[in-house]
Amino acid sequence: MHDFPHPHEHGDHEGEPQAPPDETDPIWAGERIELQSVGIDIGSSTSHLTFSRLVLRRLGESLSSRFRVVERDVLHQSPILLTPYRDPFLIDTERLDSFIRGAYARAGLTPDGIDTGAVVVTGEAAKKENAESILSLFAREAGRFVCAAAGPQLEAIMAAHGSGAVARSREGSGVLSVDIGGGTTKLAVCRDGQVAAVAVINVGGRLVAEDRGRITRLEEAGALVGDEVGLRLAVGQRIDDTRKAALAERMTACLFELIDRRPFSSLTRRLMHTPPLDDDGPIDVLMFSGGVSEYIYERERATFGDLGKALGEAVRSRLRHHPLAGSLATPLEGIRATVIGAAQYTVQVSGSTIFTPQPDLLPIRNLPVLSVRLGEPLSVAGVAEAVRQAGRAHDPELLDGPLALAIRWPFGPSHSELTLLGQGLVQALDGRQAPVVLAFDRDIARLMGRLLLEELRAKLNLVAVDELELGAFDYIDVGEPLPVSGVVPVVVKSLVFRPTSTETLLE
After folding, report:
1. How much of the chain is in helix, strand and coil states, percent to nearest 5?
2. For burial by CB atoms within 10 Å, which of 81, 164, 402, 435 has the most?
3. What's the CATH fold of domain 155-333?
4. Alpha helices in 334-458 (DSSP H)
5. How many CB atoms lie within 10 A of CB 209?
């Protein structure tokens, strides 16, 4: 339905050769990893898949064996499916399952051939009664190592990566990415190749859906906007283009209060899903993505029984006289930005100096990440307290199960300092039955793993990985070691639903 050309893309390491002289060289094979990735986006309005080939290369920094994505080829993109619902609260899992199986068949791929990727249930779809089960179902079925991710902040980051806003900001520009979907709009300020701030508002093209002029779906945010413009909306009520335009104009006004970083009206405050953008720096480039962006950039003219076209036209009209009108840029991806970003942002690969004394512990999914902040000077008691402090920020129930400790290591690889760290970890963790993954930002995983188990005789079910960038309240999946390189893929997630039974969906 919306198939657009997508060029071969490269990373931003201009100084590195883009093709190896001899890919059969075993030394080269250890420096380069190739993965097949899938991104599955189940949104309020639409659902679609993107299959990609990712190439990661070792950067070779001091005390580092970090791998980064340097190439991405889009292998296949599915058609765009209007997300099917059984009723206003239940997504039709059977039709989704059939659509996804068909996409694999058309791509000439099988789930067994997928190494990594993400299933993302976004916007209002993530609130539906069975969204949790949908995530679990497709995460289990999509491939050997595919995560379930849902959360507005992560959506904003993924869209900023997928649209090209993050890459554009590396040129020194302040870029505002605005991803308008069916149920929410995700904003991200990008500076120097990083996402500096995000915000999410309940403005989207499918807050009200209709069929033959009568409302068939009405989200709470859509009803709020309707009340504001004097329309008491209800399922079954008639709606015409004039009413759609009134709703779209009011939503656009709220959205631009956020874009302009102005004081919020009462309605905007009620529609906000997160705090406002925590960034007051200059914006040099404005970039839209998401399904509604197809109307903003006039790449789509058809209507799909919702507010999408009216909302896109209202945004485009307001932009004509806006101070940022001359700064409007075209994204690399529009409606597919989130799922393209999912294939890039969520994939990290550990360094090669990992420690996996019990390979049967892997793969392991949905590990809550505790961010351990080490103070100076380094001490055993200080390390133990830092671990306990990280744990106090989390749900106590989660702490009894498998978990990951993200440890930023500002010190060197000296044995004395590593011993202090190890003794502090033993004091805080020794005797835990559930697996513990130590995730370091520096290249010290193997050293620490051996020190803990062989020298300090820690009684832990331990995995240690390194060269990862993790934060508090992330969740991660840790996969099995990859052939040749021996590294493990790690997928980073935000909001993760508690594990639930999916037996009824899998029958």
Report:
1. 35, 25, 40
2. 164
3. Nucleotidyltransferase; domain 5 (3.30.420)
4. 337-345, 380-392, 415-429, 445-450
5. 25
